[in-house]
Every structure is written in C-alpha cells, then in structure tokens.
Amino acid sequence: MFFGEHPARGAKDGEDGQHVSPLESRTRSRVLHMVSADGPITAAELGRHLDLTPAAVRRHLDPLVEQGAVVPHEPTGGRRGRGRPARAYVVSDAGHSALEADYDSLAVEVLRYLEATAGPAAVGDFARTRVRALEERYAARLAAAGDEPGARAEVLVEALSEDGFAATARPVGAGGLTGVQLCQGHCPVQQAAAEFPAFCEAETDAFSRLLGVHVQRLATLAGGHHVCTTFVPTGGIGLRSRKTEQPSGVVASGAPTSTDPRTTQTTVTTSRTDTLTHVQEGSS
User: Which residues, other chains included, contact 103 with Cβ-Cβ below 8 Å and sequence gap of 6+?
Assistant: First the structure.
C-alpha cells in the first residue's frame, strides 16, 4: 500500500530454539526482506544477491521456513526439462506480519470506528487524502523522468523502495500490448487494506495519475497473493493521453492530447484492456 514505511521488524531472535547473535539476526532479517522483495527466489539466488555461501543461506532460510515466515512457492506453470527444479520461496502471511509495524491492529480499529460513525465514504475519503500526500511528494521526481511511462515506472519503483515497499519492475508482454510489471513485496498496512479495499483502489488511481497511463492491478498482498502486482502499459493498447485535470500539486504525463477541429476543444481519449492473458499474475 501507498503509505510511508516505519521501521520494520525482522524475525525474532531465538524463535528457532537457538541463540541468535545480533549479527545473525540482522542477516536473517536481510534474507527475509530479500524474499519479500524478489520472491519467488531460490536459495542460490539469495546467496548471490546477499554474497552468502549456500551453507550461510540455509542457516538463516531454514529457521524462517520452520517459523512459517517463509514458505516454498509452487509455480503456476509447469517447468519442463531434466532434473528437479530448484525450490523457490516467498514470504507467508506470518512473515509479512513480522515485517509490519505494531500499530496495524490499532489502525484497523480506528478505520472500523470511522466507518461505523461516519460511513464507508469517510474511509474512502481518508484513503484518497492519505495517498494524495505521497502522490504529491513523488510527482516532481517522476516529472523529471520525462513522459515515457516505462522510465517513470522505474523512478516510481525507486521511490517506493526507499519508502519500504520492496518494489521491483520488469518488462512484460509482446506485440500490441507491452508494459512494465511493477511489484511491491511488502505492504506496511496489509491488514487494514485487506478489510478496506479503498486503500488499494486509491493507490492504483494514484499510480495511473503519476505514470500518465491506465494501470491495472493484477494481484495484492491484501488479497492473499505473495506480492502486489500492477501492469503499466508502455506501448499499444492501454496507453492514454495526459489528463487535463490533476490533484493539486500533482504533475501527470502521457501521450499528447488531440484537438477536435469541430469544437476546438482539447479532448482526452482513454483506451484500456481488462484482458492481460500473457502476464503471469504475481510474478516478479
């Protein structure tokens, strides 16, 4: 979700029944965060990214699996070839809870009270107001990247990662529908978002305004997936022209607007697709 991150907690020392030194605890936390950011990820890939030996990776990965913070990931598409494929891992719901701040339950209680006393619309208004503050903070940074959605998506990933969302991006698609698959491996308010989808909706709308294209949310941590996945079109179907109206302080970009010679008014054309069959949901 589109909220500023607070200091995250890694796995607790001693949960595997062994003494864990401060150094080991920090390394184990790095392993957990790496799985959150890049999962599904294999032990070999973890070792390469973290500059750890296979034995060192297992020393930290195995206890996380025993605790239930990390679980093996079963690929949706069958792999072919000789030999058994390397086991990949993702962060479980318990693992995400370990990464979340302690105030999450309190936030849910406050939102429930707001909904009960002021109505569901008040929760939506709060979500949009909260997201707008960060949207305005990101807007100038994305504007400096130019109008190309892919370039802006890369800058958005950098900004999200700095705020603790463990964001990544990679190109996907072919032919008339190409784009960037933006993934967020961590959600600081996953529990609240699971009960109040207005936060996910507000974030998706903010991404569309910031990137200047209609983005499509494919999966969310709040919905039970191992990562939040957003498709950002960069060519062909799905591109749209720049919006003529933006929230105060937000700079948008996109394809140039066109002029209707009959009315001499600027028109904005939006095209979208709800069928992204070639994009694997939740992959990163």
Answer: 6
Residues 6+ apart with CB under 8 A from 57: 31, 43, 44, 46, 47, 50
Q: Which residue has the tokens 């996109």?
A: 254
- Residues 6 or more apart in contact with residue 7 via CB below 8 angstroms: 101
H-type alpha helices, the chain? 22-38, 43-50, 54-67, 93-99, 104-118, 120-143, 149-162, 190-195, 198-211
For 255, list phi and psi in degrees, rounded to 5: -75, 155
β 70-73/177-184 pair status: unpaired
Query: What's the CA gap between 207 and 209, in Å, rounded?
Result: 5
Helices (H) and strands (E) in the chain, counts: 9, 9
Q: Is the pLDDT of residue 251 over 80?
A: no
Q: What is the pLDDT of residues 102-120, one digit of tens each?
A: 456 778 889 999 999 999 9
| Proportion of the chain in helix, strand, coil states, percent, rounded to 5 | 40, 15, 40
Using CA atoms, how far apart are residues 34 and 16, in angstroms rounded to an integer? 20
* Burial zone of 259 (CB within 10 Å; 0-12 exposed, 13-18 middle, 19+ buried): exposed
Per-residue pLDDT tens for 23-33?
666 788 888 88
Collapsed DSSP state (helix, strand, coil) of residue 89: strand
Tokens read off for 282: 């939740």
* This model's pTM is above 0.85: no
Cα atoms in the Cβ-side hemisphere of radius 13 Å centred on 178: 10
Nearest to 27 by CA among 1, 6, 55: 55
Which DSSP letter does residue 114 get? H
Using CA atoms, how far apart are residues 124 and 110, in angstroms rounded to an integer?
14
What residue has token string 């807007």? 139
